[in-house]
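Reminder to self: tokens first, then the designed residues, so the page reads top to bottom the way the pipeline ran.
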């Protein structure tokens, strides 16, 4: 299987590259920008074009969101012309108002924010114009490296002794980029074997929590590691933010369909986070020793 991957510096792109390197059944061609060229698509002749998500779109400038939308629209036109499936990953923030229960795939987001509306309009065009597509909605991604990775900035802030400000009244599903990469390749391998199961899917970690709790777990892990190494360090403190005073905003994705169709289980974010932090500590210890 051959995949063409856009946005080389994205944390999901790096995770897909790592996963492909561990396998013999997947080849990647990676381009630097989100928008691919006709020449790159024609030369790669991929089984699908993969576009990583625009992380935290609600907090970006409208011009940044529009640039992403225009790139995806251009990719959509090329995929139609060359008959190539499109895998477009999108942020759970499109569900601006959340939901009382887990959000199913058939529930199309209806945000009020104009920038988010542009992303929804592009999703509508993908569904209308390209039958062979996967729109994959993800929780907030975490990784040790790459753009939009969440963890590096959090670790740097804590180690610098600065305050970490995180929402306590937003409930979401932190999502490991490594788990997403493994799942996407698995889904496309099954598509290549005749699954013909296109459409929208949710991929996220288990155990919904708040960003504040996530940051607290990271801080606790770091504290334990530093104490074990008998190293003195004053980690930054945590400050809880409250944006929704009446009741918490729940943005929890129901990932049952990806299990029913492809047999993919969601990985617990705590296990994925622990593994990543173990790797980070090992690397950090080696750098400190040199």
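Designed residues (290 positions):
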């Amino acid at each position: 299987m051959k995949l063409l991957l856009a946005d080389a510096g994205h944390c999901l792109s790096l995770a897909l590259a790592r996963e492909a390197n561990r396998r013999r059944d997947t080849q990647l061609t990676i381009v630097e920008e989100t928008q691919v060229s006709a020449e790159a698509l024609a030369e790669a002749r991929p089984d699908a074009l993969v576009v990583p998500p625009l992380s935290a779109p609600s907090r970006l400038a409208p011009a940044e969101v529009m640039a992403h939308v225009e790139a995806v629209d251009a990719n959509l036109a090329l995929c139609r012309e060359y008959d190539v499936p499109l895998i477009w990953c999108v942020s759970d923030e499109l569900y601006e108002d959340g939901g009382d229960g887990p959000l199913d795939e058939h529930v199309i987001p209806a945000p009020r924010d104009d920038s988010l509306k542009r992303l929804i309009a592009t999703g509508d065009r993908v569904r209308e114009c390209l039958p062979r597509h996967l729109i994959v909605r993800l929780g907030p991604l975490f990784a040790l490296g790459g753009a939009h990775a969440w963890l590096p900035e959090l670790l740097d802030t804590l180690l610098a002794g600065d305050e970490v400000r995180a929402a306590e009244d937003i409930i979401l599903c932190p999502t490991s980029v490594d788990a997403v990469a493994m799942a996407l390749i698995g889904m496309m391998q099954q598509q290549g074997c005749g699954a013909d199961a296109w459409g929208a899917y949710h991929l996220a970690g288990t155990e919904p929590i708040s960003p504040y709790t996530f940051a607290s777990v990271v801080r606790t892990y770091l504290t334990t590691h530093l104490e074990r190494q008998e190293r003195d360090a004053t980690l930054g403190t945590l400050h809880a933010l409250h944006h929704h005073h009446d009741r918490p905003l729940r943005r929890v994705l129901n990932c049952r369909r990806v299990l029913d169709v492809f047999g993919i289980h969601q990985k617990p974010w705590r296990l994925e986070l622990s593994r990543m932090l173990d790797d980070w500590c090992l690397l950090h210890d080696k750098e400190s020793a040199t």
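The mean pLDDT is 93.
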